Amino acid sequence: MGESRTELLSWLNDLLQVNYTKIEQCGTGGAYCQIMDSIFGDVPMTRVKMNAKHEYEFIANFKILQNVFRSHKVDKPIPVERLVKCKMQDNLEFLQWTKRYWDTNFGGQGYDPVGRRRGAPTDTPATIAPLAPSGSRGGSAGGLNAGGARAGGRTPISGHRANSTQPNELAQNLQAQLREMSTHLEGLEKERDFYFSKLRDIEIIVQQQLETLEAEGKDDPLLRDVQKILYSTEDGFEVPDQAAVDEEETF
Fold first, then answer.
1. Which of 84, 88, 94, 221 could cross-link 58 (Cys pair, CB 3.0–4.6 Å)?
2. pLDDT digits over 23-59, tens only?
3. CA distance 164 to 162
4. What is the reported pTM?
5. 117: closest CA among 59, 55, 61, 54?
């Protein structure tokens, strides 16, 4: 039923004046935010990092999108933990839904995407892989190969074989260190995803409970405090911008 990848990318690039080549690039969250801005005109685009390259930046963008959905009563769950992995199928499905929502709600008004994001760069990673542990491993392998080539180049004569053990030992030590660091990084990523999932569950429960109370004309200060903590700003999680001071929501 939905548009093809080619059709979606053509529509997206035309609407936002960007140059996306893969659906996976939408996993940074920036494009989704600006599509909603073209409809509502009130997304704090100065806080959206259109050239996000790390997963924590992707999550910050999706926090802004969640706030937009909440303020405009958009009844659509955002599968953040799947979208930020920048997998094609997850983002294709969400982009197809977003396009249908845009078709229904866009009023046809003029929209200046570059002006709204104040000329901010939009270059997402060429190879989408947030925090890229596999890229680190690939880079490590490349470094080791390069080291091997240099070691071989410095010992062209068999009379210096004894000296070649030093580069060999160094390469083995580096390889062991890289394996250890890679394992440690994977462990940290699993731990991060585990706690993010827990926080997301808490956020949904708090949000649902507050909506129920609001419908009954009630409020819960404790839940409001919990929600405030969930949405509070952490130093280093967004690029400081003087123009963003007036905007309200952040990660």
1. 84
2. 999 999 999 999 999 999 999 999 999 999 999 999 9
3. 5
4. 0.53
5. 61
